[in-house]
Amino acid sequence: MQGDERAQALLLEGGEIRAIGLSQDLCARYPASKQIRVERITPGLHDAHAHPLYWGEQLGLLDLAGLSDPREVAGKVAEAAKNMPVGTWLRGSGFLFETYPSKELLDQAAPHQPVFLQSRDLHSAWVNTRGLEAARITASSTDPEGGKILRDSSGEPTGYLLERATSLVGEVLPQPGIQVLEKGLKDFARRGYTAVHHMGWCSAAWAIELAERGSLPVRLWWALDKEDWQAFEPGWHHGLLHLAAVKFFADGALGSRTAWMHRPYPDGSFGMPLDDLEEIRQRGEIALKKGFTLAVHAIGTRAVAGVLEVFKTLAPFAKAPLRLEHAQHVRDQELRLMNSLPLALSMQPSHLLEDARLVRRHLLGREREAFRFRDLWNTAKPMAFGSDAPVAAPSVADTLAAATGHAFNPEQSLTKEECLYAFTRGASLAAGWSRHGVVAVSAPADLTLWEGDTPIGRVFAGELELF
Fold it and tell me: In terms of CB atoms within 10 Å, which end of the chain has fewer, N or C?
């Protein structure tokens, strides 16, 4: 909360905070007001990096979270397949493997269904033979730009796909609709969030439709996909949807070993770039001149360094913070470069809960470069916290646990108050919403209500909801 920490009560009216003070004083001044008591009130929580369409879809998929043994995953698939019609797609997500498995285990587990399983980070997928056949992926298929079809010694696809090769299967899957986007957004609202920063993989036309019919349960900061952003104009729609940015991907993810690094993984690979840095610069300049900002996914050290150099070139055109999404592995020299840039840092601490073991396995000796919460906080750039749902559940508790108790660099931990700032005011500043993220007179009445460390309600656009 910004302002007087001694404040005990708020008066809300017309979607704004009208007064702040002692309970006794406000009750005396406004005796007819409806009253509710809670332990704590903060500015409304933001999930500052999420994919709400796919979170809505994830809520109905086979849950493979926390699994790292392909045999265990195959067992879950076999159990699920028993109750499914022949030929029906079996989908799941949440696993992370240390080595890439082949299709044979899935063929045995589900011989009659095409199977498509996505890794927890959504940057790789495991597919059985029926799934490969449905997508027409064969030995003669070429790797898509920014993706890789893993193959055996004879050139046959193994059933494991990296990065944009997963879209070869995605194109033949039943596609989610606007109702799935709405389902995902409603789940965020039920968790106490009042805002979500959308990070791609969904049509903005659906978000506009929900805004037009008054069906948005949160404020939406929207990053458009790079393929179709030019069809839209930047700005607000019906007060709740902000078309604000264009999304690019500089690299992949650590769990799939596609995060782009300066030094190799134990297998000798360096990860992979996705969107070419020069393309990001050129197309980014056009987007900035049109009034958008940029949100660029950068996880590995080489991706972070490259994107910061691009941002350095684009800084004169930026009217809102340029967003570095993830910033998961950062060298000292890039920390110094951040000081001179109009930058916001969007991070997902809950990933550390799963990635700690991956850092120790794949980046031995480079642990200090990973999840540098304190060092990045000390740059004084706006820090915004999110979940990357469906990569991780949008759990406030998980984020607080990870960020306040760093798994392998305790000195990089933040305080609980700093974390709440990143969930509220920091996220608002990263969005360019200067009036949001504070408890102050005339600020929007977007609030989260707490008992202990648990959100138990919210005020959204002035309306009270208790869970």
Answer: C
